[in-house]
Fold this protein.
Amino acid sequence: MYSDSADPAAPAPGTRERVLERVLSHGPVSAAEIGGALGLTAAAVRRHLDALEEEGFVEVKVVSAARGAGRPSRRYVVAPQAQRRLGGDHLGIALQAVDRLVEVGGEGEVRRLAADALQPVEEAFQAAVAGREMGLEERTRVLADLLDDAGYAASIRHVGAGLAPTLRAEQLCQGHCPLQGLPARHPEFCEEETALFARLLGVDVRRLSTLAAGGHVCTTHIPLGRA
């Protein structure tokens, strides 16, 4: 994905790739959080982040402290222009093919194409949960793992801890989209994906942000209290 420089001070070959992957799957994320997950000091992580920022792979997102207390924190996200570089996707060819499909068969063909593209995820999920009694949280973890394996850099964030059970939720985050650029021109891809998540989890879900709309990550809100 990204090659470490020959700098002898680099902790180990491939460390920079691991830092970038952490930003991809967990951004916005701080240097300290990355260091804690990878067993590195925050200073060592910052050196890699600075290099990645210079190369255009990541960018800084300044987050204000809660209730104005303390200094704003620097968090890192993958730069929008870097998404295609990370995936190595042939966007131009794909867009031409989909546009041609619309000319021949109409917009309905795009929705069918989107459903077909998601079918491997659906089949893998059904196979993983078949014959098992699983709650919503466990089903969400299964879905996140399958998406991560499929290249979506997926992770889960818990929200509403300490609140009433009806207010607790999980957010399914996708830091990368293997369909790079297609959903931006054809929102049917995002719509079909959201509908698939709701169908697999058996609960209404809500899309909070998407890469296609300019977000740093695709975020799907999954209300646990409605299970």
Remarks:
- The chain has two domains: 15-82, 89-226.
- Residues 62 and 74 are 5 Å apart (CA to CA).
